[in-house]
Write the C-alpha cells for this entry.
Amino acid sequence: MEPLTSQEKSSRRTGAEAIVAVLAGGRATRLGGDKTTVVLAGRPLIEYPLRAAGDAGLAAVVVAKADSALPPVKTEVVIEPELPAHPLLGIVTALRHARGRPVLALACDLPLIGPDLLFWLATRPESLVVPSVEGRIQPLAALYGPELLPDLEAGLLDSASMRGLVGSLRPRVVGEEEIARFQDPARAFTNVNEPGDLERAAGLLDSA
C-alpha cells in the first residue's frame, strides 16, 4: 500500500470541500436495535466512521431519523424525513443540507474504513465516485456531487434500485487495486448487519 503523497497530506491539512454524511437512519432488525448504539470493541458503532472522518480532516454530519436512538455525538445531526423508506433518502437529505457542497456518503455500519481512503474519495474531482469490491459497487460509501441531486430525488420518488440508479449515472468506479493503495478492500468494506459480522469486525480490530 502506498502512503499519501506530500501534496495529498498538505491538502488534508487544509481540509476538503466535501462533507462526510454518516448515514444512521436505517433500522437494524438483524442486530436487534439501532445500529448506531451497537457496541463494537467498547465503542458505539457510529463512532468509528465519525472518528475516521475527523482523522481525515473532513467535516461530518450524522443523518438520522427523528426517533433514531443515537449515542451522544458532538457532530451535527441532520434529521431526514420518516418516509420514504429508501437508502437514497439519507443521501438526498445530506445533499440538500450541504447547500452545493459534495457529499461523501458513509453508512454507519462500515466501521473499518480508514481516514486515508476517506480523504482520497472525498477529494476526487468527478461528480460521482463509487468504490467496487468483489464486483459490487458500494453506493453507501461514495462521493456525490451537488449536481446529482435532481437525479437522486427523481430516483427516490420512483423507488429506484440504489445500485441500478447509481450505475446509470456513469460513476467513476474505484476498483480494488486503487482501494488497496490505502487499505485492504475487504477490511475497508466490512459491513456490520448481524451478530456474526460484529464478531468478525471485532476480530479484525484485534488483529490490526
